[in-house]
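In this supplementary section we document a worked example of the pipeline. Step one takes a protein sequence of length 506 as its only input; no multiple sequence alignment statistics are reported here. Step two produces a three-dimensional model, which step three serialises into structure tokens for compact storage. The input and output of this example are shown verbatim.
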Amino acid sequence: MIKIIQVTICFFLLNCLSAQPAFVKDSLHSFILKGMKKWQIPGLSVVVVKDGKVVIKEGFGVRNLETGEKVDAHTLFYIASNTKLFTGIALANLAYEKKLSLNDKVTQYYPWFQLYDKTSTSLVTIKDMLTHRIGTKTFQGDLTFWNSKLKREEIMKKMLLLKPSQGFREAYGYCNSCYLVAGMVIPKVAGQTWEQYIEEKLLLPLGMDESKAKSNELWKTAKNMAAPYTTAYTDTLMRVPFDQWDNLGPAASILSNVDDLSHWLLFQLDSGKYENRQILPWSVLQQTRDVQISTGSRKSAALPVHFRGYGLGLSAADYNGYQVYWHTGGAAGMVSNVCFVPELDLGIAVLTNNDNQNFFEALRYQLLDAYTGLTPYVNRSEQFWPGQEEGMKTQVAEIAAFRARVKNYQDQPIDLNKYNGKYYNELYGNIEVSTIDSGLLIKFSQHPDLQGRLEYMGNDEWLLSYNNIEYGIYATRFDLKKGKPKSIRIKVNDFIEYDEYIFKKD
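The serialised model returned by step three reads:
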């Protein structure tokens, strides 16, 4: 009986595959393996669903370089910002149930909540939070919560300090903290935490049994968890710590795998149904897909895309004449993409464990090219690679030049003690600078696991290297007055936040 079942399954899969584009049938595996080698990706998993069936669901490479354990369809990865659609759907469902309106003011649920100016505070709604349109720049303020010890309400209160660079509701600026605020409305109306609601309404009904909304403990104990790696700043594959993001749960904390995400994609493509059961009303899913703000209206030079917008936890665009929905996710050592094309009954998810690469996007586009019938063939991995290669060469050369300057000054006398003391930034809290060996050490009060080492390079510049390579390696300086330090400029990886911040000496 078991042999008959196995033969039947194999026949079914072969039939499914035979109906797929030539690229999927003949070239997908080699494309993935070549791409992983070129982009230094230890492990990758991919799922493709088409016409209500799982066509591809497979792991490649290793989830852990140290142990050599293989990636499979059940290997867990951070899906990071792909969490946002779960939050958007949850709130759209609560609106459907008349427990809230997406146009409700945030202050209706948190009277103490404030944005930078009073007018925005009085106007801002749940929908504004879900659509990244409060006027702040992309990633502005993200270092506040990134692996910090701040609790959710403390992060919400910090948003008062985010000075907008553009008008309220006038432009798109990707905001992780906004999703925290939106998700924090759920306990107020549902009587359960965000995690409980997501698991009860989505994960469990969809049979996503291995996925978890609360990740900090799971990645410590999970038996089949991908380890995070990066090549950033060194062009050498390095293990990095897992991000601790439960304090920002509604924006980024879900762990999942391609087996579970196949259920998620089938649910999206079958109008809210899974295994012939209506999990949520179709109108709930529809609402998340309605574009609320434009994110681009110019034709892409590289891709068949003309228009882009954002809904409720979901990006939307045209692609070779079809309407495409997707979101990417990035955590330390991991990047992901989840994408679906309702007109083609097509869903794609790609999970990887190197964050410094664009192959996870190249693979998505290659699959979209195949299924939408784009011609002539373009190898997206090769198309994207020169930018990665040039950027990496430039970065490595710059850091090598910095280190050479440090070496030139390592024997030069410099009064390190005058830089010691506490420095303060209203948004990010205290840092403490102290003398260590032939340099300085920075400790961050809101980030207990984060430290930075400063080495003098001459010309009043210092090389700032973090104990976690994910935060970067940068040149920085103290601002001096009459030879005494008054402040220091702190920069972290653009992956976390683009702007530098000034910490003033007490």
